[in-house]
Amino acid sequence: MAKFKTNLELSRKADEMRNVEVQLDFTPNALASVLYRQGDTVVLACCTKESKLPRWFPRDATKGWVHAEYSLLPGSTDSRFRRERNGAKGRTQEIERLIARSLRAAVDLEALGPVALNIDCDVLNADGGTRCASITAANIALRLAVRRLIASGDCLPSDLRPTFEQRKEGWTAPSLSAVEQKNHEMDVIPHDLAAVSVGLIDGDVYLDLDYILDSNADVDMNVIKTSDGKYVEIQGTGEESTFSAEELSALLAQADGGMETLFQMQTDVLNEAV
After folding, report:
1. Which residues share a beta bridge with 227?
2. Which long-range contacts (CB under 8 A, 24 or more apart) does 77-80 make?
């Protein structure tokens, strides 16, 4: 069966991102939350602080941990997606691991200190690129959460952290200046993180695949990168097709354009956030 003609179906240019909208603190209970829209894909990312580090950490641990969970809500797809009552399976588990290791790659866990953070990414509506949207949304929520932990004295530079004895004696966290807070934030998360999908359809390269584009792609690829230009992960698959080194280069170049948009968006959203 012939694939659809993308030049007739596509409502945006091949190198054009879908519109991105971000609402901070969508839910008040999380340390930080982000309602993230990328086209018709909608993700709620919530960051919460755990009461203690994972059980496998030593009691005197000096570094922290970042974990992630991901789920498609029942009404997020055109037919009801059944809840995974007994834990994540298959695709869900693979995406959770991708999000978590991407976030940890962008965070200095020693600078974070002995703090455990969870990022929950719930897809409210799925129209392609849910894992990429979740990673970008999670990074925004994570940075805002870290900023707030620093302001509250729960995330401090190593030389200002209390000893066990000081905590027992009713230690009071020192106050950092605005400059010191910003410097420590940049120590914890030196560079922002974002992800975007790209694909090959009938020999042409497309950016930010929605469901229609993704389901018709000969090659689809998820690219995760930090704002200093370093790759965290590249997931590229030929769907009953192959791709050349030249096509791979073209896909990565197209992804770079989308990354610039996403990194600038994150800077704009977080510049005034507290």
Report:
1. none
2. 77/126
Supply the Cα-derived Rg of the chain in whole angstroms. 20
Question: Which CATH number characterizes residue 105's domain?
Answer: 3.30.230.70
The answer to whether residue 251 sits within a structural domain is yes
Residue 200 in 3-state DSSP? strand
1 assigned to some structural domain = no
Q: Which two tokens stand for residue 184?
A: 């420590």
Quick: pLDDT tens for 137-190: 999 999 999 999 999 999 999 999 888 788 788 888 888 999 999 999 999 999
CB within 8 A of 191, min separation 6: which ones?
106, 226, 227, 228, 230
Query: Which tokens is 92 given?
Result: 């869900």
Range name among 29-38, 46-55, 69-78, 101-110 with the lowest pLDDT average:
69-78
Q: How many residues does the chain have?
A: 274
CB-based burial, 241-268: b 16+ in 10 Å, e otherwise: eebeeebeebbbebbeebbebbbebbee
Cβ distance 33 to 120 under 8 Å? no
Query: Is residue 77 a contact partner of residue 112, using CB atoms and an 8 Å limit?
Result: no
**Is the whole-model pTM more than 0.85?**
yes
The single-letter code of the amino acid at 135 is: I
| 28 within domain boundaries | yes
CB half-sphere exposure, 49, CA atoms < 13 A: 19
Residue 153 lies in a domain: yes
Q: Range of 67's domain?
A: 6-270
Closest CA to 120 of 106, 105, 99, 144: 99
Give how many domains the chain has, as a whole number: 1
* Rounded Cα distance, 216 and 255, in Å: 18
